[in-house]
């Protein structure tokens, strides 16, 4: 397929482009459309998720998309507001002492786990120790800076750190900070029968099909629980989700951009959501051709990223150059969204300067028929136009991360992901020598220093400035090709009140309500 044909195919069907402007964004002030009547406390909110939970043990759950199902029933030490900032959860306050080498947490009084076990400092201690040591822990690395957990009374703990870690509060807002009842640690069915201290208890679970949540008695934040329950249905098929919304079987879901016109034509409210995940091409910078910054910059100039947003995302996305969204405090104001604009002639000149006047070949992985696969095919054609042969090896999506990041096969990965609770987690994973998402371990020396700065910064302003230096360097070095951040279409039914999901792909349901059916 030629580059011209590729651009034509990418833009095909772009009749839905104007719909983005017609969809109000969901952000700090965004909400579902008003419904007639007051909130009905007896209503059940029904949500269709695109994927089930890997397991209900939060310390061993393997995907950030698990958070949607986990955090309804597991509370965390720290919560986040609608701008992603750390706010009190099971910990009411925290402070760094000892030159940043200790993090003290004050804990909420009177909280009990769903099995009646008290939540206290002793429970926090054993939870963090378990998260660091349990077999197949998915959060061990995130807690590596914690050398010891000390109990200082029933409602205070001290986390002794190996080095200052300003990212730790937001790390504790993620699965690493989810609290499991200590009495349930050894339950053989914990992966399917969670015992947390969250808003809702799980009363029924059919793996891959549905989860039934009902309010937990005495939850500490009653304003967060305004419905009689949440029914989570797992519908992997986009058509099924839209039909379920149309018939009133569900109250909310995320749509495919291709479905927005049909949904709006049926009178369904659609809003543009947000996420801290992004589409990207991650090169293995240990490969000789990708070790040259001129080649990496050529990869950017060869791609018309806006056409990917317009065609593949139907306008539901924004091009970006940094691995953090523009609403993040870590986002540098010094870097615009398009520092390497589409310029195939410049891409060819950079390749020639780097010693590749006839281009080169490299291999990537993708799963057939997926969004990842469609993006890979579009990139393949853009690169062919400048003489780069990007060969796509098709494999099962569940295998790709292990093959590329662990076994270090292949030369690059077109994919989507990246966002973490704290931006320092994202930069550590992608740009440091030991980062899991940096196959080959190639990292310019200054990045270890920059990472140390963003982790050790003692106040918000200093930390933001350190992140801005990091982002400027990431873009200047063109460490990866960041294509765009999607703005997924969030659809809600007519009875939905006060749905503020924060992240469209990992929604929380605090304060969601429904009006009574007429």
Structure description:
Strands 8-9-10-1-11-19-12 form a seven-stranded mixed beta sheet. Strands 4-5-7-6 form a four-stranded antiparallel beta sheet, with helices on one face. The protein is of the alpha+beta class and 518 residues long. It has helices spanning 3-11, 19-22, 67-70, 121-133, 168-171, 238-246, 260-265, 293-301, 305-311, 344-353, 371-384, 397-406, 423-431, 445-456, 460-477; strands at 44-49, 78-80, 86-88, 91-97, 102-107, 146-151, 156-161, 200-206, 210-215, 229-234, 252-254, 269-272, 278-283, 317-319, 361-366, 389-394, 412-417, 481-486, 489-492, 496-497, 513-514. The chain folds into three domains: 22-50 and 199-274 and 489-514, D-Maltodextrin-Binding Protein, domain 2 (3-Layer(aba) Sandwich); 64-184, Alpha-Beta Complex (Dipeptide-binding Protein, domain 1); 276-486, Roll (Dipeptide-binding Protein, domain 3), CATH 3.10.105.10. Helix 8 (293-301) runs antiparallel to helix 10 (344-353) and helix 13 runs antiparallel to helix 14. The N and C termini lie far apart (55 Å). Strand 6 and strand 7 form a beta hairpin. It is built from 15 helices and 21 strands. This is ABC transporter substrate-binding protein. GO terms for molecular function: peptide transmembrane transporter activity. Residues 1-21 form the signal peptide. Pfam families: SBP_bac_5.
Question: Can you describe this structure in just a few lines?
Answer:
The protein has 518 residues and is an alpha+beta fold.
């Amino acid at each position: 397929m030629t580059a011209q044909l590729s651009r034509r195919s990418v833009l095909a069907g772009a009749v839905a482009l104007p719909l983005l402007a017609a969809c109000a964004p969901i952000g700090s002030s965004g909400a579902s459309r008003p419904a007639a009547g007051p909130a009905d406390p007896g209503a059940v909110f029904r949500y269709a998720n695109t994927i089930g939970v890997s397991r209900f043990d939060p310390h061993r759950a393997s995907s950030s998309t698990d958070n949607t199902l986990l955090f309804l029933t597991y509370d965390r030490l720290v919560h986040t507001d609608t701008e992603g900032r750390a706010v009190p959860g099971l910990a009411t306050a925290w402070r760094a002492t000892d030159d940043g080498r200790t993090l003290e947490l004050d804990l909420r009084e009177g909280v009990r786990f769903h099995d009646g076990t008290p939540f206290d400092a002793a429970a926090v201690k054993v939870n963090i120790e378990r998260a660091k040591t349990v077999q197949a822990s998915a959060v061990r690395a995130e807690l590596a800076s914690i050398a010891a957990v000390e109990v200082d009374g029933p409602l205070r703990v001290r986390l002794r750190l190996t080095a200052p870690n300003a990212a730790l509060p937001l790390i504790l807002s993620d699965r690493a900070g989810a609290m499991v009842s200590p009495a349930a640690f050894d339950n053989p069915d914990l992966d399917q029968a969670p015992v947390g201290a969250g808003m809702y208890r799980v009363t029924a679970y059919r793996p891959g099909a549905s989860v039934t949540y009902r309010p937990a008695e005495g939850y500490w934040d009653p304003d967060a629980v305004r419905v009689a329950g949440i029914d989570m249905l797992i519908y992997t098929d986009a058509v099924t989700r839209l039909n379920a919304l149309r018939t009133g079987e569900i109250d909310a879901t995320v749509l495919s951009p291709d479905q927005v016109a049909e949904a709006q034509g049926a009178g369904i409210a659609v809003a543009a959501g947000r996420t801290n995940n992004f589409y990207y091409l991650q090169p293995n910078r240990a490969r000789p051709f990708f070790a040259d910054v001129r080649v990496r910059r050529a990869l950017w100039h060869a791609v018309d990223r806006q056409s990917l947003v317009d065609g593949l995302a139907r306008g539901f996305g924004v091009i970006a150059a940094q691995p953090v969204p523009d609403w993040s405090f870590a986002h540098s104001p010094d870097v615009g969204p398009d520092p390497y604009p589409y310029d195939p002639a410049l891409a060819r000149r950079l390749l020639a300067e780097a010693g590749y006047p006839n281009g080169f070949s490299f291999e990537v992985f993708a799963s057939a028929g997926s969004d990842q696969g469609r993006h890979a095919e579009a990139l393949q054609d853009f690169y062919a136009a400048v003489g780069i042969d990007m060969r796509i090896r098709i494999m099962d999506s569940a295998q790709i991360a292990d093959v590329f990041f662990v076994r270090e096969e292949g030369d690059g990965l077109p994919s989507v992901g990246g966002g973490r609770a704290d931006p320092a987690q994202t930069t550590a994973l992608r740009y440091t020598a030991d980062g899991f998402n940096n196959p080959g371990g190639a990292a310019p020396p200054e990045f270890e220093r920059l990472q140390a700065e963003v982790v050790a910064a003692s106040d918000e302003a200093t930390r933001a400035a350190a992140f801005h230096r990091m982002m400027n360097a990431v873009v200047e070095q063109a460490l990866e090709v960041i294509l765009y951040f999607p703005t997924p279409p969030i659809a809600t039914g007519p009875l939905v009140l006060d749905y503020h999901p924060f992240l469209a792909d990992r929604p929380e349901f605090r304060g969601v309500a429904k009006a009574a059916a007429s």
